[in-house]
Amino acid sequence: MASSPLTIYSSFSIFQHEVLLLLSLLLLASSISASGNQFKLDGKVLELDDSNFDAAISNFDYIFVDFYAPWCGHCKRLAPELDKAAPILAGLKQPIVIAKVDADKYRKLASKHDIEYVAFASWHHKYYGPRKADLLVRFLTKFVAPDVAILNSDSAIRDFVEAAGTNFPIFIGFGLNESMILNLAVKYKKKAWFSVAKDFSDDIMSLYDFDKVPALVAIHPAYNEQSIFYGPFEEKFLEDYIKQSLLPLILPINQDSLKLLKDDQRKIVLTILEDEVDEKSDRLIKVLKAAASANRDLIFGYVGFKQWEDFVESFEVYKKTPLPKMVVWDGDESYHTVIGSESIDETDMGNQVSKFLEGYREGSVIQKSISGPTLMGFMSSQLGVKIVFIFMFVTLVMIMILWMTKEEPLTVGTRDQADDGRSSTSPQKPETRRIKFCALLKHLTNCGF
User: Fold this and answer.
1) Listed residues 120, 141, 162: the one ending a domain
2) What distance lies between CA 5 and its chain's CA centroid?
3) Of these residues, 72, 110, 219, 285, which one is catalytic?
4) What is the per-residue pLDDT for 425?
5) Catalytic site residue from 21, 69, 75, 251
6) Which domain holds residue 398?
7) Which residue positions in the chain have pLDDT lower than 70?
8) Is 438 an active-site residue?
């Protein structure tokens, strides 16, 4: 008998005349595979309705269902992304099928799975994942993976690392029992891959640069970095190491990477460069990596003035400011400069970075407030734009309603003048206004408001 499906979905909504559903996503996992060939694993998005929905859920181990509305702007933008993701997800070792349901047409089916018509953005329990094809694939691949993978050979280790890709850090426990990291693996599953290697050769020990067990190796494939933890293996110390290792030694700061800092309470040693990609910056980044390795209680990051001028100006850095410049940022509204270490020149950069860190730890600092948005402000800048558009839309709706229901003033004149008032130049009747209003409203919602 099939187990209860695991339901994970989210819904967005906007105005369409009154209240409408924009997007709801459903991820359903079934533990059985039904007989019959009604559905094929061919990499195409399935179209489901009342007649075949339950059969589809029973036929696949994992199925990701998009409840959409044909008029919905967000849904229209999502559809081609699902088409791109479908063949990739279908080709996984644990295939995931993508399907869709017209929630506007099959409302009872949508309601059965708690997909409702709502007037404002509403988050349920919960698909929080991205909606671009490549990011969707990464998220769902990780979602269906075991909490802790068990690796029993050198080849299994290599296959696991290759399959994990480069988008998340990878933790491999050598000589560890999976129970030692299971709770933390569940807690941080959205942020990293976890595994334990039961059997491995000296070649693997050499490859991952550890010389005794137990050992927990953290790998950042995207940054070509790895580190080793030899204990103690009590949960508190393990969690500290895992949390610190979720980020690379030095993090390039941009709109996406700021999101990684949101849940980390460590202070950020931020180095502001003229240009992230020039030769001088490359040398300094190598020095900063060495410093980061010895100061894991801090996050090290860098950003180029050329790459993100608006952000660095929040730290009083302008075109004529001597760069590179280092500050210690709390990730919110304040930061510290270190007295005597206002900027770094090209001579002996390692010593200058050490002096900066010593000055910070000794309290030889000046506290300042950032002059722009906070971390959450930078992360939410695009959301802010959307809120402004929604506000403008609501205001327009209210104005149109008032205009549509406005009564025409009485006029004084002869019968002939009254007859003339019924000519083509007369004010529009309420019915005409309603037609134009609905046409405008439909245009706005189709544009994705």
Assistant:
1) 141
2) 25
3) 72
4) 43
5) 75
6) 380-407+425-446
7) 1-38, 115-130, 372-391, 393, 397, 400-449
8) no
